[in-house]
């Protein structure tokens, strides 16, 4: 991990490191401005490399939670942002676009977030039952955390890796 970070910083140099830091800040603020009319913005001011939004307005209007929004984002082919953090922001969505995101990918994310907000109003069950495009449907995360059902199995002879495999079982539906 340290070698990777050192290599990245060394490769960028002082000017490059400053540029990518500025890009991350610009990206976060671009998302903030584009989504502030759709999602609640607890701190309406310039942000640094991350923007904190809240789905509390959508939850109040539709019953769809931040977790529902995050799970639906998976259906759009995007990894969901950090949810319910920071803890002082109800229904928090912490979005941290990196310096490598293009305007096109930021716009795709913004478009998906706006569509999800509209879907919450038009068809809340669509969000409650998301994701729909994955091999496994929504996992019971609370149940899995409280009663982890893990098992170890020896990899098959045909397997690529010879390392033991630890897998979670019974924490979701297929």
Structure in words:
This protein is mainly α. The model has no long low-confidence stretch (mean pLDDT 90). Helix 1 packs across helix 4. The protein has a single domain, classed as Aspartate Aminotransferase, domain 1, CATH 3.90.1150.10. The strands form two sheets. A three-stranded antiparallel beta sheet has the order 1-3-2, covered by helices on one side. Strands 4-5 form a two-stranded antiparallel ribbon. Strand 2 and strand 3 form a beta hairpin. The chain has helices spanning 2-35, 56-62, 66-75, 103-122, 124-128, 141-146, and strands spanning 51-54, 82-83, 92-95, 150-153, 165-168. 47% of the residues lie in helices and 10% in strands. It starts with a helix and ends in a 6-residue tail after the last strand. The radius of gyration is 19 Å and the shape is globular. It contains six helices and five strands.
């Amino acid at each position: 991990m340290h070698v990777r970070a050192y290599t990245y910083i060394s490769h960028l140099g002082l000017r490059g490191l400053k540029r990518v830091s500025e890009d991350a800040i610009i990206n976060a603020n671009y998302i903030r401005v584009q989504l502030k009319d759709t999602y609640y913005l607890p701190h309406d001011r310039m942000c640094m490399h991350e923007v904190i939004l809240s789905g509390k307005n959508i939850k109040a209007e539709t019953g769809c939670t931040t977790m529902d929004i995050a799970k639906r984002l998976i259906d759009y082919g995007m990894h969901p942002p950090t949810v319910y953090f920071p803890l002082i922001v109800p229904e928090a969505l912490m979005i941290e676009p990196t310096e490598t995101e293009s305007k096109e990918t930021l716009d795709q994310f913004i478009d998906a977030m706006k569509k999800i907000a509209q879907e919450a109003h038009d068809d809340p069950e669509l969000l409650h039952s998301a994701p729909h495009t994955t091999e496994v449907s929504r996992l019971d995360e609370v149940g899995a955390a409280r009663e982890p059902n893990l098992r170890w199995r020896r990899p098959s002879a045909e397997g690529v890796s010879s390392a033991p495999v630890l897998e979670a079982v019974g924490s979701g539906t297929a």
